[in-house]
Amino acid sequence: MNPNWSELKREFERRRETAEEARDRRKRAIYGLIPEIKDLDRKIAETGIALNRELIRLNPDPIVIREFENKINALIENKKNLLKDNGYPEDYLDIEYSCKDCNDTGFLKDSDGKPGVIPCHCYRQLLVERFYDISNLNSDGQTGFEFFNEQFYPDVVAPDTYGIEESPRSRAIKIKSKCLDFINNFERADCRNLFFTGSTGVGKTFLSKCIAIEILKQGHTVLYLPAPAMFDIIYRCKYRFNDEEIPDDSYRFILDTDLLIIDDLGTESPSAAKYTELLTLLNYRSAKNTKTPCKTIISTNMNPKDIQKTYSERIASRILGEFEILRLVGDDIRIIRRLNQSEQV
Ligand SMILES: [Zn+2]
Predict the structure, then answer these.
(1) pLDDT digit string (tens) for 111-137?
(2) Among residues 194, 149, 225, which one has the least CA distance to residue 327?
(3) What is the pTM for the complete model shown?
């Protein structure tokens, strides 16, 4: 689906309304608790009206204007102090937009603070989400590093069971710290891509989505796609079977998004053409990354040896050379269940 501007505009209106309603609720509560603030708001509004009246007069008096402005500033200062004295942040009654760079208008603010013509990063992200009809990564309420719990991973060293010389828990803690390094160094060209490997249900998808949330907060665009869906889009875009209408944008986003997460690599139906596409994609993104952040995360059940067997030598060496390999291990079913229900545990 190709989203149109009026649809996106409605979404931004909805975001602004939600932010304004939340502010109004805080305001009503504060008016009940600290009536002096209501009084101050009334005086600020009255002085504002008087100032406007002066401004629209034929010959406005600059001294009167200055006096009104000083009065308003003093009242605002008073209000901030009252809030602070009562244990609230001084901006508690400001509107808290979900994106501070554009105040939920979708366009970056100009020097005068009004929305300009340059689309904001949140606009680009919304476009990506609508384009692929994917849900907002933030919305499931149980993904994010605050839900990561190392207790879900066994604390026993059992190389015969887990295939590593340390406990799954100590491995998971190290991997979490690598994920945080990735987030902190995302904008550096020398920060390596991540490759999550491990059996089903050990937290690969969970961790890649946790990273996605943090990268979105930094104001970058993130595209999360299961490998079969991604290859399908690329293939249809490039070869246009049956003359179907596939907009070029859907391929462009895969190439250009700041963070691309390819989930479940290896579950796509195998074909040499797909591997060539994967190589082209990785080449393009790694070249772009030298100028502007363009990182890729791959998660797969395959281990690096399987990669060598399944894909061409060139893809395997590209992945092994450019990606940091993070192998998670654990008792999958228990971890899946707990990760999914981590809120209740
Ligand atoms: Zn924005």
Answers:
(1) 877 777 888 888 888 887 776 666 556
(2) 194
(3) 0.71
